[in-house]
């Protein structure tokens, strides 16, 4: 970390600052220029409060020379990570594309098995479905919970597809024993207590970017899991909150590219939640594939009475099949170059 | 809820939509105009998926006639709520102003007691201090935890000030037995599992608005707590995330006014976290008082070796005293009219 | 337009509202339901102030049944527009892909001609270059102005490439006589006086989305040009301002899809300005091609002393060639399906 | 300006960078530390492209030691500026509070004179009114234009109140000869060509912050005017665009404080446009006064047939009077301290 001290700072106050830093068992290296004084700090800066120093009236700014994420950092692990999912050790990352599909909520045995079979036939490599549902309103349906997980496991037995489902409470972990990938939703991205508990497992964790979280904060949340010893982390871009209201959120596809530069972890994209509109899912899925995403997570429903739902964010199985084909074509073309 | 159907929608598809709604035990009331068809829905719409309907290609839009929050809604409770805190039943709301002050983190007995005494002398009505700290990095100091709460209780015994401290995990609730106000941090505003557990207690809960959460979402999170039976909720505006970087967050003071219109719950403002800069705390505290906030939560430190910290977000006790006086003057002037 | 009146509105006030609307030569159609009263408004609502009505305390909300953009609206022009550029009538839109490349600023004859030749060889269909530069600081280089346009015209004579350059002041229009496409920059997207003047020409106008402007506002700005009689408008997505700082702006690729749904005008994407980083241009260009953009506008420089600039937002000609190839492959794959 | 070079940058490339900088007539001062290499740049950096350097893969970051605004900078003009308005040399800034009020649009002689008289009686020090109206839609009413200015001048003759009205096109400047304060609207904040022309006049300019513009960009736009020789600039905060939809924009009151720190220019606040709702104007006006704003600009209408408009953003004259009194009380209380 370096501190840039203002030109007009009084020497005495700069000296106080240096002493205070050194009192915290850190070494400093001061370089006085004509233009500014730079204080380099050497040692374990993890207890140093950035905001506190930035706010000092004698400080122009603070700059981190090394990123605060270690385990997730590509600098220290230049090779792409490959995450292995389920008993069949399905690979995700480094050219292994994950096509995850399924309904928003698990509703019944018939529903989930029917969707599972049709998305498998269309090329999905994993089945997703919500059992515990984070709902903005306490009065809204909160999911089938344990029963929903049972139904997902039933669908897994029927189709062989590994299953992905969201956790909202570390106390529920025993229910997730046979779940293949545990999802952390956007609202829980900085639920650090939950992340720590997931760090103690060895399950693959799919962690979604929070609606107002930066790319670096997503990496720090991955770091929470990895710091606990669980290196099986898959990142997910699912749209951020902006002023634009034409789509539910704004899908930030440059995040895929930036993440690939900063980390070795695989990055998947959720075009269904990002746009909130079924007819936007296909173009955004193709765009994600084109810019190098390691996978997609797409909502597919299969409920005849819902057949009116041309809209919303869920695709019908035959629409998903069309998306899957297009994504394969685009991926091949995008990779064709290297 | 009403659904506005597009002018050019095929009759058959509109009929399908109506049937699907009615199949969910809801009644509909259709009004065909020259300009649009409106479907009014009567009944318990809590299981109805808004996004799904909005996304239908035949739907122009969906409009909720009644707000989804009930217990927090001023319509059903026109009078301001007064929350009673601690054994002394300190009142917050409806003209009872809460001046909450204390350090970011509890560090030592000496520190917390010294700060407690000085903020009390300056007019603080409650003591705040972090024992469990939500930190973006797993490598950063995470607080003194249970020991921090012990020290806060010690300070309470010394000064009589009720204490406010943050919870991050419902499993820690037993440690909060003697805490007077439990704080839910911005990152946990939509940790619904935590909110549900807090709804089972009868403790006052101070819930902070998430960085990217709307005012309505804050109310829905309050509703989670109240739906469990705990009506002792205090809302807190602490800045939202925008493109502006001159302050850490953008303090949204109009939220105070909007919240007072929508809900009967008290609203306090945290100018320290919102701005991240100590010298901006005073003007923002005065502004919050002027627009009717029911309290302030302000960071104050009292650590001689930190004396260099003119900046950052913490005030020194003598600065806090100056803020407290100014706030009292401004409040009196703002109220002078009614 | 329909107005949804609150359930508890007093009849007298609703009557006042209806009278006030009718006093403005509009007809109303009132539909009273159990749930809400809907006032439909028929006639020319262009003078009606939305915000004023929305703000009334008896009004739940206002909903436009028809979009406020007419000439740009796909509803009234279902077929894709094809814009013809330059004497050679180069087509843009409806499957005709525009690959626009060139330096940020025109610097010298040697520079612009060299870049023009190399981007042409790599497959560019138009040459871009800044002559009038909008700079945040009055002290920064403001472009070669008239001389810059001269140099662009020289490059056009040499290579035959139509040229695209930005206008900042309608008084400069005479200088743009031989320019093929006039660009309106993001900062001038709502400079309505400029738009009106451009509406009087018949030149193709490439209008960039403002950093904080919605998709609908971009369409309204296009409408300003078209309302003047100039239907040759090309829209450009170039990133919006969000809290994320890893890229200069956040490229909103879903805007391409949404725009294609709402309008018949071609939509091009500027990955250079959106990301601000040369090494992110290729993946974002491929993503834009995959989701159906009608063209790309990419910064390419060719200045040997600048050879150190691996970074920044400009590509070297050989890098641009690589991007152009990848984009062609991805486009073919994306279209392969229909 | 200093450049922080990455630890692992190859020496050769760092040398290239230094040579390139020096080739632009700048001197460098290199300081190699254990932790990073810092290149200080001395000389006129106005032609140096920040983004280009930031984007280099060997560069960790760029930091400006001196702000890019000069004339507006408090460092070089520590005393508050006082702007003198109109023939009566009405003072704004440094304790001289501007209370600007009037209708959104000038509609008729009767209207503007009636509003002018009533706001004057209530304590307004200037009259505002829109003659040229920036409207999102080309089909919406664009104001009375030259006639509107005539009516404002009539109201000025009647009441003696200096007038404030918006300019949208530098070619209209002759019409503004007798206007006392020329307003630049939010959408034109970065219409640099307009700003340059206003810099040639000596009229007070009230410039509003753009919806997506940072505080520093607002200062750079003020700098455009001042660089032309016109130092009579008044800044205006009027809300920024965020994800929150409960208010039209999000009023950023901390901007007032930050601006007072960075610049000597007066800062006024527009609570009417920021919130878009009349009943939020009073609390936000009081908050602005409490945090030190140098004035307010408030919409007031006086049209009996509009009497139904309890809402929207305009106040009735009697409501404005109430706001004016409350603001005076709060200002006195806020200042009572220093």
Output the keywords.
homotetramer; 338 residues; alpha/beta; Alpha-Beta Plaits; TIM Barrel; 2 domains; eight-stranded parallel barrel; four-stranded antiparallel sheet; 14 strands; 18% strand
In short:
The structure is a homotetramer of 338-residue chains. Chain A has 338 residues and is of the alpha/beta class.
Can you walk me through this structure?
Four copies of one chain form a homotetramer. The first copy, chain A, has ten helices and 14 strands. Chain A has 338 residues and is α/β, with parallel strands linked by helices. Chain A has two domains: 62 residues, Phospho-2-dehydro-3-deoxyheptonate aldolase, domain 1 (Alpha-Beta Plaits, 2-Layer Sandwich); 253 residues, TIM Barrel (Alpha-Beta Barrel), CATH 3.20.20. Chain A has an eight-stranded parallel β-barrel, surrounded by five helices. The first copy, chain A, has a four-stranded antiparallel β-sheet with strand order 2-3-1-4. In chain A, strands 5-6 form a two-stranded antiparallel ribbon. In chain A, helix 5 links the parallel strand 10 and strand 11. Chain A starts with a strand and ends with a helix. About 1% of the residues of chain A have low confidence. Chains A and B meet through helix 1, helix 2, helix 5 and helix 6 of A and helix 1, helix 2, helix 5 and helix 6 of B.
């Amino acid at each position: 970390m370096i501190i840039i001290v203002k030109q007009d700072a009084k020497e005495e106050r700069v000296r106080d600052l240096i002493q205070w830093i050194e009192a915290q068992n850190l070494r400093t290296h001061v370089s006085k220029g004509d233009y500014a004084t730079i204080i380099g700090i050497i040692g374990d800066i993890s207890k140093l409060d950035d905001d506190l120093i930035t706010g000092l009236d004698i400080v122009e700014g603070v700059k981190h020379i090394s990123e605060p994420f270690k385990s997730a950092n590509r600098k220290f692990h230049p090779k792409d990570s490959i995450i292995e999912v389920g008993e069949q050790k399905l690979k995700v990352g480094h050219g292994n594309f994950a096509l995850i599909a399924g309904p928003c909520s698990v509703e019944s045995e018939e529903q989930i098995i029917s969707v599972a079979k049709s998305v498998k036939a269309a090329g999905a490599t994993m089945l997703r479905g919500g059992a515990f549902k984070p709902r903005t309103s306490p009065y809204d349906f909160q999911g089938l919970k344990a029963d929903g997980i049972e139904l997902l496991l039933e669908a897994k037995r029927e189709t062989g597809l590994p299953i992905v489902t969201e956790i909202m409470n570390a106390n529920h972990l025993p229910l997730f024993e046979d779940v293949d990938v545990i999802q952390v939703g956007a609202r829980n991205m900085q639920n650090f207590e939950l992340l720590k508990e997931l760090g103690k497992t060895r399950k693959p964790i799919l962690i979604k970017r929070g609606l107002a979280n930066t790319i670096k904060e997503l990496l720090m949340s991955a770091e929470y899991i990895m710091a606990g010893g669980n290196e099986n982390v898959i990142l997910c871009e699912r749209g951020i909150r902006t002023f634009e209201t034409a789509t539910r959120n704004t899908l930030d596809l440059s995040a895929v590219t930036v993440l690939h530069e900063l980390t070795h972890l695989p990055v998947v994209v959720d075009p269904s939640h990002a746009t909130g509109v079924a007819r936007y899912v296909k173009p955004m899925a193709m765009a994600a594939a084109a810019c190098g995403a390691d996978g997609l997570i797409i909502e597919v429903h299969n409920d005849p009475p819902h057949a009116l739902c041309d809209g919303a964010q869920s695709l019908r199985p035959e629409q998903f099949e069309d998306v899957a084909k297009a994504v394969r074509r685009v991926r091949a073309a995008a990779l064709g170059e290297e």
